[in-house]
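Retry 2 of 3 after timeout on previous attempt. Resubmitting structure tokens to design endpoint.
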């Protein structure tokens, strides 16, 4: 990024939402769901041991203990001068068994949302972030039509009990990634490799969103409802190679457009999660490894890609909120520049007329990074794995100044 870009102060529009993002399973702790069962399974442990890894580092367990420390976490969000927060609700807590609705869990989330409101934080609430109650997974999960009905009952309950304190509804987090990783590439539970199952799950998730959208709007006509989509920037590894260009087009269609095309009449905004550029190759493992300018996870830092993605998504003609953008960077040496450069391109998009209305850094805390376990550190605040003490990283102050001034200097 050229420093010339920052010669002048960059101002964001009034009312711009500044926040951080989290998800229930990755921070709360003490949850039993299909992921917690999978993490403990013999097959999973053996696979990790074979790779020379310690399975303990891949168990979510008590996570960041945020189920108990949510007030402290909300205070951290306030200390960042942010005016919003994205939090998640864990379906498996609310409905631990098919015929059991857990009143304590519902009351807990009511309190979380009220505490957020007390702190003047706008609430962006994710109803489903990949994890499922164990009973649902045993019934065949999202490959079965029944999942849609079950999900809608859960949505009804949220609407009636918690809806009044929800400003932005995210019915589903990155459904395409979930369908792909769980049913086609098999990285996530239930580790299937079936295009047929992938398609079934995708279709059921589309139906679930559309019906949830209608239900939420019946109850709250002015609600803001959408999904988030993982919208990374794809390029062919060899730009001159036509088959790779075609491969890129197919992947980008499934990755970025497919879901939005289907639900376009049932969204009030576009939720973007952007992390990296992905150079697609027809040579296995199909993604060209990046060597320079990478995060601790080896992901290429490519701020310009966010601009291209915003441009592409602007065709849906809806307000856009960036609901995740961040990096794994334990040393915190790259985080400030990362945030600054990405925001430069967000601002560029706004100045070209693209209706971007908010930016949420992923994540508030170092959290459980799914199949990658505990090693990636995405947080503006580090979390001690034994005491759960939160420790501010220097980049948190940098972000707090941006949120306070609504600008980058
Ligand atoms: C997911 C998060 C995850 C982040 C970093 C996003 O796609 O929604 O849950 O932690 O990526 O990998």
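Retry 2 succeeded. Sequence:
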């Amino acid at each position: 990024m050229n420093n010339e870009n920052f010669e002048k102060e960059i101002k964001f529009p009034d009312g711009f939402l500044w926040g951080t993002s989290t998800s229930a399973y990755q921070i709360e702790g003490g949850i039993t769901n299909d992921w917690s069962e999978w993490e403990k399974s013999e097959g999973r442990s053996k696979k990790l041991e074979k790779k020379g890894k310690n399975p303990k580092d891949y168990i979510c367990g008590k996570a960041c203990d945020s189920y108990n420390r949510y007030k402290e976490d909300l205070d951290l969000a306030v200390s960042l001068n942010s005016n919003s927060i994205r939090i998640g609700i864990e379906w498996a807590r609310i409905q631990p068994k098919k015929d059991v609705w857990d009143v304590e869990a519902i009351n807990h989330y009511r309190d979380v949302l009220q505490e957020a409101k007390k702190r003047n934080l706008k609430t962006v609430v994710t109803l489903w972030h990949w994890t499922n109650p164990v009973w649902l997974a045993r019934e065949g999960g999202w490959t079965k039509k029944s999942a849609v009905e079950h999900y809608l009952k859960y949505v009804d309950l949220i609407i009636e009990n918690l809806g009044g304190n929800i400003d932005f509804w995210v019915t589903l987090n990155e459904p395409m990634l979930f369908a792909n990783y769980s049913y086609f590439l098999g990285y996530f539970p239930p580790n299937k490799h079936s295009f047929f199952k992938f398609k079934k799950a995708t279709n059921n998730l589309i139906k679930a969103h559309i019906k949830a959208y209608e239900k939420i709007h019946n109850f709250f006509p002015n609600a803001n409802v959408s999904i988030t989509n993982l919208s990374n920037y794809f390029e062919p590894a060899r730009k001159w190679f036509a088959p790779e260009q075609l491969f890129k087009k197919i992947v980008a269609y499934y990755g970025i457009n497919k879901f939005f095309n289907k639900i376009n009449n049932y969204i009030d905004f576009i939720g973007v999660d952007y992390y990296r550029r992905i150079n697609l190759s027809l040579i296995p493992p199909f993604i060209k490894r990046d060597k320079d300018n990478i995060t601790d996870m080896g992901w290429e830092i490519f701020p310009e890609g966010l601009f291209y993605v915003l441009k592409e998504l602007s065709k849906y003609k809806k307000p856009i909120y960036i609901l995740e953008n961040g990096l794994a960077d334990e040393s915190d040496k790259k985080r400030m520049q990362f945030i600054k450069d990405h925001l430069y391109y967000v601002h560029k998009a706004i100045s070209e007329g693209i209706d971007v209305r908010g930016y949420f850094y992923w994540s508030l805390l170092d959290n459980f990074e799914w199949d990658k376990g505990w090693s990636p550190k995405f947080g503006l605040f580090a979390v001690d794995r034994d005491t759960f003490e939160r420790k501010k990283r220097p980049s948190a102050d940098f972000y707090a100044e941006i949120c306070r001034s609504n600008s980058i200097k």
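Attempt log closed. The CA atoms of residues 208 and 368 lie 26 Å apart.
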